[in-house]
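Fill in residues.
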């Protein structure tokens, strides 16, 4: 089972691209059966459940005890990255739906497949994994505040607070509770332990399933959105280049060790597009351009990960000295 899990993790990028290609084919050739939006939330809940299952409840102490890494992680994702986004936003057209979509996807750091990508990039993925619940809770709490700051009065028109509360309960609280219950069962029962080990195979297949469901559902909406997609691609490419640099600089300022610095770079660069999509779909009267913009970021990010896992281990090879 361990060998199969390792195989899935090392081949995950190929698996994701196969799922993406299949979704594109289905969305283009048979759009009438490509509406899988009803399945997005259950599939996302599954991803988060198996992600939380990898974080021992007692292991949360590690995420809280390494205050230096946790502080660097929070500063990078919730201060430095929003400042980068603020610098990039003027390059976008002043369309509130476009701005909202870009903000939704770029303001939220990834909490699922970043774990395995960081592992492939020789980062401290366990440290990042133990910080996942903290990262997730903070982004949910801060996202409405940041949207209000960036969008002003238009935020009130586009977003309802109960949307975030509902999504938080459905996608985060409930999967976390079930994961914690199963972990406790695994400590007291061989059956629980076997089930937990079997579920550890699911993160990569579950992510591929979500990619297929979302992309297949969004592709029919691409008609007439080509210009918009072309407008956001340069922003996403700029983010993919600059965000790792920001993570690296903050890691050096905090004098993180090599694996922790790499983990910070991956976290700064990888966004929570799949988990944030239900928030976009729940916006009253949402424009079809929003999911298209969010998925565009996902596709660019997957390509970026191929680069990150190759160059980050080569570029971050020295423990920083005191500045």
């Amino acid at each position: 089972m361990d060998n199969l899990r390792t195989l899935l993790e090392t081949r995950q990028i190929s698996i994701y691209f196969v799922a993406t290609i299949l979704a594109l084919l289905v969305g283009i050739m048979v759009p009438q059966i490509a509406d899988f939006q009803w399945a997005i939330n259950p599939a996302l809940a599954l991803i988060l459940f198996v992600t939380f299952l990898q974080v021992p409840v007692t292991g949360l102490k590690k995420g809280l005890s390494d205050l230096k890494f946790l502080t660097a992680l929070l500063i990078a994702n919730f201060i430095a990255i929003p400042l980068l986004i603020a610098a990039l936003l003027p390059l976008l057209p002043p369309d509130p739906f476009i701005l909202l979509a870009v903000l939704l996807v770029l303001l939220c750091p990834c909490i699922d497949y970043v774990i395995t990508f960081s592992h492939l990039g020789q980062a401290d993925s366990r440290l990042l994994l133990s910080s996942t619940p903290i990262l997730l809770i903070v982004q949910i709490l801060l996202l409405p505040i940041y949207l209000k700051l960036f969008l002003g009065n238009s935020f009130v028109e586009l977003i309802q607070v109960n949307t975030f509360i509902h999504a938080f309960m459905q996608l985060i609280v409930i999967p976390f509770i079930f994961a914690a219950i199963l972990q406790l069962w695994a400590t007291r029962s061989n059956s629980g332990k076997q089930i937990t080990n079997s579920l550890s195979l699911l993160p990569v297949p579950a992510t591929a399933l979500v990619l297929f469901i979302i992309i297949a559902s969004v592709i029919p909406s691409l008609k007439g959105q080509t210009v918009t997609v072309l407008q956001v691609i340069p922003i996403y490419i700029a983010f993919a280049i600059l965000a790792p640099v920001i993570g690296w600089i903050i890691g050096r300022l905090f004098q993180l060790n090599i694996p922790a610095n790499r983990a910070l770079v991956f976290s700064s660069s990888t966004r929570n597009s799949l988990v944030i999509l239900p928030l976009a779909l729940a916006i009253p009267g949402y424009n079809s351009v929003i999911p298209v913009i969010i998925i565009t970021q996902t596709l660019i990010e997957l390509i970026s990960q191929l680069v990150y896992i190759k160059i980050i281990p080569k570029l971050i090879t020295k423990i920083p000295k005191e500045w």
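The first helix runs from residue 2 to 10.
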